[in-house]
Amino acid sequence: MTTTGSLAPGADADAADPDAADPAAAARPALPAPYRRWLAGAQLGALGDAALAFALGWAAAAHGGAAAGLVLTVITVARTVLVLVGGAVADRLGARRVMLAGDAVMLAATLALAAAAGVLGTPLRLLLLAALVIGAVDAFYLPASGSMPRLLVDAGQLPRALALRQAGGQLAALLGAPLGGALVAAGGLPATALVDAASFAVLLLVLLLLPVSDPRRAPAARARAGTDVGTGTGTGTDRPAGLLREAAAGVRLATGDRLLRAALLLAGAAAGAVLPVVALLGPLLARSAGWGAGAAGLVAGAQGAGVLTAAVLLARRGTGAGRRPLGAGTGAAAGLCAAAAGIALLAAAPVPAAAVLGGLLTGAGSGLFAGRLGPLVLGAAPDTHLSRVQALLTLVQSAALVLSTGALGLLADTAGPRVPIALCALAAGAAGALALASPVLRRA
User: Fold this and answer.
1) How far is the C-alpha of 238 from the C-alpha of 241, rounded, in Å?
2) Sign of the Cα pseudo-torsion (50, 56, 62, 66, in order)
3) CB 3.0 to 4.6 Å from 139: which of 83, 214, 253, 283, for a disulfide?
4) pTM, to two decimals
């Protein structure tokens, strides 16, 4: 595996890094300025996307629950079907090119959505078309975006860089719904789409000014245009069949590597066992226990606060000199076990205060899990397959979430919400324990 280096760390990076004034952080180098600039643009875009997601869901809800569910399903299905091809395209053309194209398409799409909604209102067919475009662009954009930290920071800085990105993403998720609500109240879907379009315009400008071409990776990328790494077959063209072969090569590489295979399985288990708890089962528990919507909101907010806290601590702590941090695999397993304990507390919570505490512990554990597993997967991927491995990670998590959400919802209808929550705690705890017992993850 070739390690990708920092491309533009300079004096301005030290001057702009908030850690520079922290004596405890003096021993570690500042994150490169290009990475921080890209991250700021990406988080602004994430905030705009979260606001638009709320606005789309609100508009779709006016057509009934089935219509709202259909809009969300279209986004997920389009992303899931195309994501492996999206990863292959990003590895072939480069992450920056794919992201520029994706931002340009979304800028045009959100402007068109604002104009159409201003004239036509919010008919279901318009919302479904917007969902289809969002899901399709996500399929290409997410793998490319996921590979960017490897192109902009040193390998030793990946945990801190990804933790900072996770913290920003969680903050955008927490603020996105209130922002979307305020924009919808002020100007409806057209106003929200225009704000999201502005965020895409800013991100386009950031990407245009961003140096991300790694001279050590370019020869390998050029060589792959004629010969596909891992298959030995020449493609040499942009035909769909060639892209499908490259996507399949990424799957074979990841499933054939013991570390990547174990990490991807652990990511799928965590997605299926942890993510549905607060989003689906928490509100069902609050309803069945008679706690009300306020309590459900507090549980969800506590979970988000836990994720944000863990991410911020990981970003601040880093891996400075003289420290003996938890290994990436062991840390991810420990985080999943902590999340399992939080889910178990939620399942047994007799009062809302205990449920809020369970949500906080669940969030902190899942934040530690993501903050450790993300650098492990990204660091273990070869330079020639960065985006394809990220695409496979997205696919594994999406598939596990879709399957578990449906099954857990049906079980909650028949046995009440506490039973599926307890099963999620058992599943998360078992996955964490197996990860702690796995030699390949312990050595990671």
Assistant:
1) 8
2) negative
3) 83
4) 0.73
